[in-house]
Amino acid sequence: MLYRADFHIHSCLSPCASLEMSPASIVAQAKVSGLNAIALSDHNCAFNLPGFAKICEQQGMACLYGMEVTSSEEAHLLCLFDKLENAMEMGARVYDSLPDVPNQPDRFGDQPIIDENEEILGFAEKFLISATPYGISALLEMVHDLDGLFIPAHIDRQVYGIISQLGFLPDEEFDAVELTAYGDPALALDYSIVRNSDSHCLSTLGDACTEFDIDALTVGNIRSSLLKSRAD
Amino acid sequence: MKISDIQSLDQFTCVQSEYADAEVSSGYTSDLLSDVMAHADEGSVLITIQAHKNTVAVSSLAGVVAIIICNNRPIADDVLEAAASEGIAIFQTAENQFQTSSLIAQHLAGCPAA
């Protein structure tokens, strides 16, 4: 099956994202935008993944459960799982490790936790744009131990990309690197490339996406497909 | 000043001492490694809170001879091992980057505050 995938989408839980980004609205818009595989990847928090999982199942949308984790280097790393419980485990570790700095909604935006019916269940208290104390290598190990994909996000950006933070792309066991829609593929060196929209509002969903010709949307299949694209 | 002069100051604990005692010609204070790579001088001491092995890699490329980790941030063993193999000294301090920069600047100028 050919999956047209956008694996970097923020819900309203991310303070920088639009409040229109409920899991239900994301799935509805993804269909309109011609996507048949998506991942929710909020900043340093998995609280909206259970609602996202339910609505994806109800709507027959193939999905991965993700997060965009901030390393101690303040680089953004996309972490993707095909098992909700593994994503929640990683999410708990990441959220617990954030500094005890509360969000200031007036300044940064709200961080609502939403269920599949768009009901507000509560708010994430800690400011989600903070950095975890974990370095890139430590995060990679945690994600791989939980059978997830580890992908440095938007490496072509001038802020919060691994290259903007370190000055170079380190030699690690990354499953791929992510580029924005028009990012220069030369930046990826020998790594496999995925492109995602990094949407913070509905209108940009699918503006960048990656196609996977695989039987089912699993971490194992995606990893094989990425390795093959690297070999090509 | 030399690297060993940093080691002799009370504020700094040397946590990686396998280094040749080179002259420290200047300092650079930054927590953004791409900025360190672009602007740190050869022979400088890097003042930062970034205590991971990429700090060592960037320091090596830029010719940084010593790294001071501020705010007593923890330093993993793989960082110390990487620094030892590159011969880059690492110090840890409870002081912040501003206080450390001020102190090192005084010593570089040869007029430490009494």
UniProtKB/TrEMBL annotation, chain A:
Residues 5-73 form the Polymerase/histidinol phosphatase N-terminal domain. It comes from the Bacteria. One of its GO terms (molecular function) is catalytic activity. InterPro entries: PHP_dom (IPR004013), Pol/His_phosphatase_N (IPR003141), Pol/histidinol_Pase-like (IPR016195). It holds the Pfam family PHP. This is Polymerase/histidinol phosphatase N-terminal domain-containing protein. It comes from Pontiella sulfatireligans.
From TrEMBL, chain B:
Gene3D superfamilies: HprK N-terminal domain-like. Residues 34-106 form the DRTGG domain. InterPro entries: DRTGG, Ser_kin/Pase_Hpr-like_N_sf. It comes from Pontiella sulfatireligans. It holds the Pfam family DRTGG. Homohexamer. This is DRTGG domain-containing protein.
